[in-house]
Design brief:
Layout: H1 2-8, E1 22-27, E2 30-36, H2 45-51, E3 63-68, H3 80-86, E4 91-96, H4 106-113, E5 117-120, H5 124-130, H6 132-140, E6 144-151, E7 156-159, H7 161-166, H8 176-188, E8 191-194, H9 196-202, E9 217-221, E10 240-244, E11 257-260, H10 267-277, E12 282-287, H11 289-297, E13 303-308, E14 316-318, E15 325-332, E16 335-341
Parallel strand pairs: 3-4, 4-5, 6-12, 6-13, 8-9, 8-12, 9-10, 10-11
Antiparallel strand pairs: 1-2, 1-3, 7-14, 13-16, 15-16
Helix pairs in contact: 3-4
Length: 343
């Protein structure tokens, strides 16, 4: 099962909204096949694992290990449970049950009804950690929320307006290695969210340039539609969603999606509901300070990744205030990276 979890990571950033599942087939204590979920719309992990076995006859005396319950319904691909039954695999070891309404124990039930021995809950905690995005989406009806920012050694996330006026270029707090890592993270999540001021001050592209892969859905909080066509987020190069309270379609730009928010109420929960409608399993919230603090204040976050650089601003915009369980401390060149879970 550990190997199944390991190879399942290969699907990070490509399988959503499907889960990134890993599967391993063992015969006579030897691994004879393995596979992970293909990019969305392609074969599932079980299909790829079975397909990798050279001699299909030995499947009748083999054991299949899979991180998540095999599906039992027709989607973009046929049910994996049916394929397992067709190849007469006698034993299936499952990490955890699938909370998706179309599965929810039915895959396990179908296998058992066909005479397959099914053992569940093997390395369940590790499988839950691996499938945290998929589980959060289906169990909590919202995306897995990752907060990310970089702060100076004296606790600022951005310089004051004086420095901004002297130099309109972005003020990099983290080093080039940390920035490349951020682009890798963007590729791994389905959406990236920022506030109006972040766009007006930094004019970010919010894409994947220093890594390979697909850029996420760009989501911008723009309450009064202050952002104009001079900014990268409205260049139409990548799918973009603007969240606003302006109900004037004549002000909307072609090729950009718009959704309305009621700013008199908790916007963070409304944002999560919209993400759920869009089938977004995970979102990277990159700023600014006010947007980040909005999610922190209502406890609506799962993970926080905070870079600390060596520079100091002495004054400016203070970094958000957060508390959680520190799970990792990493040094990246001159930067430090702390990762927290919301406990």
């Amino acid at each position: 099962m550990s190997r199944a979890i390991e190879i399942a990571q290969n699907g990070l950033g490509t399988t959503a909204p499907n889960p990134m599942v890993g599967a391993v087939i063992v015969h006579d204590r030897q691994v004879i096949g393995e596979g992970f979920t293909s990019p969305y719309g392609g074969p599932h992990a079980e299909v790829n694992a079975i397909g990798s076995v050279v001699d299909k006859v030995v499947l009748r005396q083999s054991t299949l290990y899979v991180t998540l319950e095999p599906c039992s319904h027709f989607g973009k691909t046929p049910p994996c449970a049916d394929l397992i039954i067709a190849h007469k695999i006698p034993t299936v070891i499952v990490g955890l049950s699938d909370p998706h309404a179309k599965v929810a124990g039915q895959g396990i039930e179908k296998l058992r009804n066909a005479g397959v021995e099914v053992i569940t809950g093997v390395l369940e905690a590790e499988c839950r950690e691996h499938h945290k995005r998929f589980l959060t989406f289906h169990e909590k009806k919202r995306p897995y929320i990752i907060l990310k920012w970089a702060e100076t050694s004296d606790g600022f996330i951005a310089p004051d307006t004086t420095k901004r006026n002297e130099n309109t270029e972005p003020y990099w707090i983290s080093n080039s290695y940390s920035r490349q890592l951020t682009h890798k993270w963007r590729n791994e999540e389905q959406a990236i969210l920022v506030g109006t001021n972040t766009v007006l001050e930094d004019n970010p592209k919010l894409d994947v340039r220093q890594w390979t892969g697909k850029s996420p859905l760009r989501v911008v909080l723009d309450r009064n539609l202050r952002i104009n066509g001079d900014f990268h987020v409205l260049d139409g190069s990548h799918p973009t969603l603007i969240l606003t309270e302006v109900e004037e379609p004549s002000r909307y730009r072609d090729g950009i999606d718009y959704r309305l928010l009621d700013y008199s109420k908790d916007v963070s929960k409304q944002i999560c509901s919209i993400f759920h409608e869009y089938n977004v399993l995970s979102v990277l919230v990159e700023g600014g300070s006010q947007t980040l603090q909005t999610f922190i204040d209502v406890g609506l976050w799962d993970e926080a990744r905070i870079f600390t650089g060596t520079s100091s601003f002495k004054k400016g915009t203070k970094a958000p205030s957060i508390s959680g369980k520190l799970i990792a401390f990493t040094t990246i060149g001159s930067d430090t990276l702390k990762t927290y879970y919301n406990d």
